[in-house]
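Record 1 of the preview.
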Amino acid sequence: MILEIITPDKTIFSGTASLVQLPGIDGLFEILNNHAPLISVLKKGKVKIKNDKDQIEFFEINGGVVEVLKNKILILAE
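->
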């Protein structure tokens, strides 16, 4: 999947991922390959990314929104 994490100041991640875990307002949820289309509100927390080499990265966000469409994930974060 293609993943972009964008803040008002800069792009903090742009690349591929096999798993993305997000802090939704109702709890954590994960997005895997071929996920159904989705738009959701995010709360403050950590975004967990597992890249194609099975390395895990974390990014702290203060909330935002996520859009999932056709194996592309766009996170607009604060």
